[in-house]
Amino acid sequence: MTRFLKAAARAVCATIATLPLLGVPASSFAQQASSERAIELHIAAGTLQQALDQLARQSGIQFVYNAALGKGRTVGRFEGKASVREVLDKLLVGTGLQYRFTDASTVVLQPESAAGAAQGARTLGPVRVEGATSAGAVAGVNGSTDATATEGTGSYTSSALSIASKTPLSIKDTPQSVSVITQQRMQDQNITDFRSLMNEAPGVSVVTEYDSMAPTFFSRGFAIQRLQVDGGAPMDISGGSYGVLPQIDMAMYDHAEVLRGADGLFNGYGNVGGVINLTRKRPLDHPQIVSEMQAGSWGDYRATLDATAPLGFDGRLRGRGVLMYQDQHFFYDTASNEKTLAYGILEYDLTPTTLVSVGVDSTQQNSVPFLNGLPRYDSGADLNLPRSTCLCFPWNRYDFNTTNIFAQLSRSLGNDWNLKANLTRTLQQRFFKYGTVSGSVNPVTLKGPAAGGSMSNFDSTQRLADLTLDGGFQLFGHKQMLVVGANYATADGAGHSDYLGIPLGSPSPPVDVFNFDPNKPMYSEPAFSWPPTWSLSYDVTRALTVYGSYTTIYRDQSTNVETSLDPVPPITGSNAEGGLKWSGHDGKLNATLSFYRVEQKNLAMPLDGTFSNVLPDGIHYCCYTTDYDYRFSSEGTDLEATGEVLPGWQVSASYTWNLNEYKGAAAKASEGLPLQTRLPRHLAKLWSSYRFQSGEWLRRLEISGGVNTQSKGYYQGSACPIFDDTTGKCAATPIPYAFTQGFYAVFSARAAYQVDSRWSAALNVNNLLDRTYYETVGGSGAGNYYGEPRNLMLSVRGSF
To answer: Which residue has the higher pLDDT, 387 or 509?
Structure first.
C-alpha cells in the first residue's frame, strides 16, 4: 500500500507540473522504464493522444507535447514486446512528428520541421501524411482511406459518420438521431449478421412476422425499408418483388450507422422508420491477416479469413479479401442455415488527388427456415410448448444467392472540396419451397392447426448510382459546409414466379402441435419527388450542441388507383426533431438526447371499405381513395451514450420511449390505438466492456456484459375455429382473443484474453439467466417465436 501511495503521488505531481506548462496530459509511474528495455505493450489504434496515454501507462515514460499537435492525428495499433523507442518509431509514422528523450523517463514531441536540429532527434522516413491533398491519403485509422473507419480503434463510438451528411461529420454536429455500431462492438457482442446487428441498434425493435429468415425492423413505430452501403443510393430492403431481403453477413463490413426518423434529404422518399448505412472494410496501407474460428451452442460453427496488403506501384494499389463460412443450427428443431461469403476489393491512387475502388461480394445461403412460428389456443392463451419446438419440415428450402458489383471514385478538388461517385449493381436470386402450419388450437379437442405449402421464385436486380459534391467556405466569419448531389435507383423484379397453395393433401392435413412429427407421410414434399428538408445546429459550448431538423415525407402509392383509374396522391407528412448532443473526452465519449414527432397522412384506403381488385395489367389495384381523415402519428425520445468513460472502460447505452397511434375520424375504433401493439413503448439496451489497465497478466483480460430490455406489448384479434378448405372461408363464428407479451430483460456476458500479440480468445454467453420469453408474438394461429435460450460461442482470433 505504501509503494502504491508513493507511486500515485509521483504521478499526480508529474501531471500537475506538466499541465500548466503545455495544457496536455502526461503520465508517470513509480518505476521508470528504460527507453531501450523491451517490454510487453498493447496499444490500440486511434488518436495520437490515446496511443500516448496508453504507452505512458504501460511504460512509465512521461510525454511532453503541445496539445494542438495531437489534434487530427491518428496512429496504428501495436501489440508485442519492444522498447519504447521501437514503438515510437512505428506509431509516429505518418504523423509529421518526431521525438527526443530529455532524460531516461521523459520524451518531448515536436514537428519534424521545428525539431530537425534538436539534439538527439530521430527523423522518421517518408510517409503518406493524413490530411494530404491526395485522395488516397490515409484518412481513417489503422491505415484505411476511409475517414469513418473504426477497425483498430478499440472504441464503441466514432469520431465521424456520413449517414446524415454524405461527408464525414461528428455525431455531435449531425442534426439528426444517429448511432454507430463499431467494429469493436461487433467483435465483443459477436454481431455476425444483419439481424443481430439490428437487435443491438439503439431504438430498433426486431419483429419476426411469419418468417424466421426475414424479420422486420421497426423504429419509432415504422418499418425500416432503406439500406445504404458506403453512403451510396438507398437500396430497397422491404423484401417485396422489387426489393431484396437483407440476408447480410457482417464479415465484410467495418461498421454500421443508423439514422432514426425520416431522411428526406439524401434518401428521396424520406422513409419514416429510418435508414441503415453499412461501411465496407477498405484495403489498408500495410499487410494484415486476421483469422477467426468459432464454435457455439446447438452446432453453430463459423470460420473467417480477412487479408489485406499493398499490392504494387509503391503502395498505390491495395487490396483486401474476406472469406467466411458458417454452418448453423438453432435452439429449435429441424431448422438450419449454411452460408458462404466471398468479398474482394481493389483500391488504386489513380492520381495524387483521385482514388478509384472496384469490388465484388457474393453470398450463397441455403437454409431450412421456421415459417409461421407457433400458434396459441383459440383464446390467445399460451400453449407452453418446449422452446425446441419447430413446426417445420426437413424438405423446406430457402436459398439465397446475392451478388454485389460496385465501383467508387473519390477526387479532391482542392480548397476543401471533394467529388464522390458510387455505382452498385445488386442481384438477389431467391427460391422458397416450404410447408407451413397455421391455425389456433381448440382447448378441448386440442385440434385446429393444419399444414399447407408454398413455392416461389424471385430474381430482383437493383442498380444504384450516387454523385456528391461537398466542400466548405467562409461566410460572415464562419465556416460553412455545402453538400449537393443526386442519386438514381432502378429495381427490376421481373424474375418472380409464385406457386402458391401447393397441396399437401385435401383437406389440409391436420397437425398435432403437442406431438409433432415432421416425417409423417402425409407431410411429404409436394411436387409443386424530392421533399423539402432543413436542419440547424448551434454549438452552445465546444462540447455541447443544440440541434433541430424538419423533413417532409413523400411516398409513392401510385399502384393504387381511384375509380377514375387515376393514381391516388402520394403519402405525405413530416418528421420534426430536436435535442442536445455532447462530445467529451476529446471525442472518445458521445451522448445524445433527442425529441421527435412524425405524422403521415393521405394514406390510401379501399373505397367504402371493400377489398381491392387487381386490374388486367397485373400491376394496379382498384379502387382506393385518400379522402379520409386518417393519419399515422409517432412521437418520443431517444437517449444514447457511447464511448470510453474511463481508460479501458467502453460503454454503449440507449433508451427509447415511443408512442405511435392511429388518428383521425376514419380510424374509428382504432383511434388512439398503437400502430404496432406488439412493439414496446420503452426499449433499453446496454453493453459495457472493461480492459484492465495494470498487471502483466491482468491487463490482457477484458470482461463485458449487457442487457436488452423492453416493456410489455399486446396482440388481439379473432380466431377461426373451423376453416372450410373448399370455400376458403371461416365456417364458424370467430373467437376473439387478446394476450400480452410481458416485460423482459435478457442479460449477456463476455470474457476475452489476449494470449500474445497475435492471438486472442473470447467466450460469449447469451441469455445468461436462461430467460424464457417470446421474442415476437403474433396471432393465435401462428407468428409466435421464442427467444434464444442460454447459449455459448467460443472464438479464437489471430491477427498477423
So the answer is: 387
